[in-house]
Amino acid sequence: MNIGQAASASGVSAKMIRYYESIDLVQVAARSDSGYRTYGDSDVHVLRFIRQARTLGFPIEQIRQLLSLWQDRDRASAEVKAITTRHIGELDARIAELVIMRDTLSYLARHCSGDRRPHCPILEGISRPDIRQILDHKTADRGAALAS
């Protein structure tokens, strides 16, 4: 099958297939006599594996490791679990950062009247040297509300 068919069958765009080949994540496809890339079912299976790993948020280097382990029938599952556990920790850290971002923006939005006046707590908050100070105020506000 050609690159368009492989892309359709795997769910990975032709552009990404070429990129994965350029960074040696997948083998460079064989070429037909006319110079077109040709892919087989095993190539599509590898591309699907990569797509699924990307869907789960694994970075390229971890996908490279997982792909190598997946293709090694003598592997230890402990290695796969270690990579996955490390990725879960990275996801937890990103989730915590996103929660802080959401909470900060929610706090700023609640304090913005959103009217025709130029005063805007959102812009003032973003312009601060350290936006984390907003969280300190937010925590203090929450503590005062709980105390009353």
UniProtKB/TrEMBL annotation:
Subcellular localization, as worded in the UniProt entry: Cytoplasm
Keyword annotations: Cytoplasm, DNA-binding, Transcription, Transcription regulation
Entry's Gene Ontology BP terms: positive regulation of DNA-templated transcription
Top-rank taxon: Bacteria
HTH merR-type domain sequence ranges: 1-69
One CC-aspect GO term: cytoplasm
Keyword Cytoplasm (UniProt): yes
Keyword DNA-binding: yes
GO molecular function, one term: DNA binding
NCBIfam families referenced in this protein's UniProt entry, alphabetically: CueR (TIGR02044)
Protein name: Cu(I)-responsive transcriptional regulator
